[in-house]
Amino acid sequence: MSSEELARKLQRRLRLEALAETNQGAPQPAPCAASAGDREPEPPARAPTVSADSELSAKLSRRLDIHQGAARSRRSKVFNPYTEFPEFSRRLLKNLESMFKMYDAGRDGFIDLMEMKLMMEKLGAPQTHLGLKTMIKEVDEDFDGKLNFREFLLIFHKAAAGELQEDSGLLALAKLSEIDVALEGVKGAKNFFEAKAQALSCSSKFEAELKAEQDERKRQEEARRIRQAAFRELKATFSA
User: Fold this and answer.
1) How far is residue 167's CA from residue 190's CA, in Å, rounded to a whole number?
2) Which residue from 105, 163, 174, 193 could staple onto 158, CB 3.0 to 4.6 Å apart?
């Protein structure tokens, strides 16, 4: 649906609501007097639809803003940190995921304002209520007032790319998190485009890390089989 069509529908609904309000304010003709026996029962009162109309108007307005580029649409695809942040190593992403889960006290997949407050206090950089709201707003892409894991990763991405102000609370968070993003992630890249260029050369490193993990699991499985075989052999010796 085009933005022009959405705008026309929204304007038409607003005109209908204004017309309805005008009709309600106009004087109505007095009903003819009727006897008690001829009087018809009054129909049941309709439930107010103001809240529903307001909600629909808000949704139409947001969709129009998205089409015009004034707002961002909420992401519906499955988030894959390894493809969206290729400049970060697997080890760094796992460390950041562990940190996110540690401060996600509600275990709902988000860090809200209170959890952000507790995190900054634990890191030794307490923030004011307004400062916390500003921190969340800097990376809150879906405008829900809390951080999902992708938005949490944006903090460290922007910190490594030099996109955060020196007095930003997010920069303090990144520096105090005991995770050297510049070293493990984009290797000191000064801006986003340099980070992307270095990310291309890190693809082979990513594959090497993945293969190393697979080899380690194979070695552990082989060692387990050897221990089981030795145990069975020892058991057979004692049974004989």
Assistant:
1) 18
2) 163
